[in-house]
Amino acid sequence: MGEKSVDQASLKMLKKAAREGISTAWDRFERQQPQCGFGLSGICCRNCNMGPCRIDPFGEGPNEGICGATADIIAARNLLRMIAAGAAAHSDHGRDVVTTLYETALGEAQGYQIKDEEKLRALAAEFNIPAEGRSKEEIACDLAREAMEEFGMIKGTLQFLNRAPEKRRELWKKLDISPRGIDREVVESMHRTHMGVDNDYVSLTLHGVRTALSDGWGGSMFATEFSDILFGTPQPVRGKSNLGVLKADQINIVVHGHEPTLSEMIVLAARDEELLEMARQKGAVGINVCGMCCTGNELLMRHGVPVAGNFLQQELALITGAVDAMVVDVQCVMPALAQVAKCYHTKIITTSPKGRMSGAEHVPFGEHTALDTARKIVMMAIENYPHRNQKLVEIPDECMEYMAGFSVEAILKALGGSLNPLLDAIKSGQIRGIAAIVGCNNPKTTQDEGHLVLTRELIRNNVLVVQTGCAGIACAKAGLLLPEAAAEAGEGLRAVCQALGVPPVLHMGSCVDISRILVVASAVANALGVDISDLPVAGAAPEWMSEKAVSIGAYVVGSGVFTVLGTVPPILGGKGLVDLLTEGADGVLGAVFAVEPDPRKAASLILDHISAKRKALGLEP
Questions:
Q1: SS3 of residue 370 by DSSP
Q2: Cα 563–310–365 angle (5° rounding)?
Q3: Measuring CA to CA, which residue among 55, 58, 64, 143 is closest to residue 99?
Q4: Which of these, 135, 138, 131, 76, lies nearest to 102 by C-alpha position?
Q5: 474-484: buried (b, 16+ CB within 10 Å) or exposed (e) per residue?
Q6: Where in the chain is the domain with CATH 1.20.1270.30?
Q7: What is the DSSP letter of 88?
Q8: Which helix (H) or strand (E) holds 415?
Q9: Nearest to residue 221, comparing CAs of 518, 465, 550, 451?
Q10: Which of 78, 460, 568, 606 is 20 to 30 Å apart from 195, CA to CA?
Q11: Averaged pLDDT for residues 569-593
Q12: What is the CATH number of domain 405-616?
């Protein structure tokens, strides 16, 4: 790896960190070298106290654990536990949003309201909930209760599975991997991977797919749909991105994590005139709320709130010396933040009982007192502003506009209310196919390079790119989320984008909003009368690092989408498992994984796949 990042703002802050003696994720990564070869291969097991056991990948040492588990069994168990953790994280996020809707409907959630009644009624119809002559609160109560049941195992299978094409649902049923309940699949994953339960790597992998499907077509989909009901369904909006959005003369509050229930209230409180006057009394000209990671995605697509950066920039935001408070909830929050903050004046404020951090201040956040708590947090940032050490303040100039907010509804609106223009463009070859590029940053790769190189290669070859999460923020910082970026696209895609006034890269939201991509893929497949696996579509996660990404990859492949990973998953020690996921799954699920760290080669794999699918559909390859 050459440079640590392609982002100039990040490189400036890394130099500042080095000058000031502050350790960042990149430094800690270097100190971990060489990383454990057994762990990287996924062939170490600590699932009982006879071990830990490890398998020698070269055949010179043990070829089975003490209980007799082979490399494939150990690697499959480890993979299933990663999927279970990722599915649990996203689905617990979904549960919290469902609970917020329920308490809002009961009038017990302070500051929240139902903003998209049309979507509420559409979902009610989907769940067979009567809506005629009833208030939106009554409907929301029933809908939230129905959703709560889906986390258990009352109904048999998840309601949202009905959105998938019939052929895909029949395949899931045939393979006995239709998820029965979100929590049930996660619990069963842990049971199966207990010592002495499921000792067949194929069986373990299939249950991994079922668990992941409970995330993509369950927990994540609930998080997306219910967030839209509460906070409004995103429509195209413009804003600014990168560390340059921080303001030297304002109180800077960075909201970081994943759950919009917190960040929405922080934005609302920061606009309160009483608090703004308090900020002016402290010498600031205003209050600047910025997003980070997926909380940033949630805010930018609904409010145009500036996004300060993606995963690997969370420490760098503090190193600017200008952040008065970083407010975090759950997921992708580095424990190192508390240590970095000690070098500056920044307050790290945790808010979730699930996400405490040693060295941070904890302000419990709950729906019943949401707005009051948000006001308290904003006041803490205001009070901290005078403690800022101006000698340590260095804010990079880098700041780029973006256009985000392409929900399914927004895409349909841009197309005139029908998918037909998109289908016609695909059939004619103006758009060769669609690629979903998602996922994290990882210090194993040059920050943002994988996302940007892959995206540019695909749009240059007339592939429409849809994005979520840190990948979307990477492209926002590079200007690829602007209609003007169509100039970098191939002739066909460029013409479509210019006609519609949209970018060649559509930002569809946060990590949980990959569920929006599933809905679009299903709608296209249904319109063409085929399965998702027949479409000229692909997925990619060039810089993934989290267990959530493992769950995402599994449900995307389980839904029939060829997926390319840019960082190597910890399974290479299980040769049979590797063959199953990269070859054998094609005959079972109609899709496989590929692993390709080089984003240009990854683009070639995707383009070849899209050409093959077009040919099979009788379209010009």
A1: helix
A2: 110
A3: 143
A4: 138
A5: bbbbbbbbbee
A6: 71-231
A7: H
A8: none
A9: 518
A10: 568
A11: 97
A12: 3.40.50.2030
Alpha helices in 151-292 (DSSP H): 166-175, 182-192, 201-214, 220-231, 260-270, 273-281
* Dist CA 301 CA 305 (whole Å): 8
pLDDT band at 1; cut points 50, 70, 90: low
Q: The tokens of 169 are what?
A: 């649902």
Q: What are phi and psi of 273, to 5 degrees?
A: -60, -35
Instruction: List every span in the chain annotated with CATH 3.40.50.2030.
Output: 243-392, 405-616
Helix (H) and strand (E) counts in the chain: 26, 16
CA dihedral 292, 293, 299, 300 (to 10 degrees): 90
3-class SS of residue 241: strand
**For domain 243-392, which CATH number applies: 1.10.580.10, 3.40.50.150, 3.40.50.2030, 3.60.20.10?**
3.40.50.2030
Question: CA 105 to CA 86: how far, in whole Å?
Answer: 29
Contact 217, 164 (CB under 8 A): yes
pTM confidence score: 0.96
What's the pLDDT score for residue 198?
Answer: 97
Q: In this structure, what is the dihedral angle of CA atoms 102, 105, 110, 113, given to the nearest 10 degrees?
A: 110
- Tokens 């991509």, located at residue: 517
Strands 237-241 and 400-404, by their bridges, are: antiparallel
Report the distance separating Cα 73 and Cα 193, nearest Å: 9
pLDDT of residue 333: 97
Which of the listed CATH numbers 1.10.10.10, 3.30.360.20, 1.20.1270.30, 3.30.70.940 matches domain 71-231? 1.20.1270.30
Could you give the CA distance from residue 411 to residue 235 in angstroms, rounded to a whole number?
Answer: 9
Give the start-end residues of each E strand in 335-393: 347-350, 361-362
State CA 10 to chain mean position distance: 21
Q: What is the residue type of 435?
A: A
Half-sphere exposure of 549 (CA within 13 A, CB side): 28
Q: How confident is the model at residue 57 (pLDDT cuts 50, 70, 90)?
A: confident
Measured N-to-C along each axis, helices 514-528 and 547-558 cross at an angle, to the nearest 10 degrees, of 10
